[in-house]
Design brief:
With about 70 residues, this protein is an alpha+beta fold. It is about 30% helix and about 30% strand. A 3-stranded antiparallel sheet has the order 1-3-2. A hairpin with a 6-residue loop joins strand 2 and strand 3. It is globular and about 35 Å long.
Length: about 70
């Protein structure tokens, strides 16, 4: 499967730390990156999370799919 996850529909106020915090409840987060506009510094509304293992990635998918993200 893989342990790097695409995360879409993020609030524009979300930053790397927010993404890491949201996914850490489902396992070890080795990296969390919100993609930002180069010129404006504004979030693009999506990012990537890398979990410690495939099992943790699957747990994150099941736990976070459709769940609201609180800022």
């Amino acid at each position: 499967m893989g342990n790097k996850l695409y995360v879409g529909n993020l609030p524009y106020s979300f930053r790397d730390e927010d993404l890491q915090r949201a996914f850490s409840a489902h396992g070890n987060v080795t990296s969390a990156k919100v993609m930002m506009e180069r010129d404006t510094g504004r979030s693009k509304g999506f990012g990537f999370v890398e979990m410690g293992s495939d099992a943790e990635a699957q747990a994150a998918i099941e736990g976070m799919n459709g769940a609201p993200l609180n800022v």
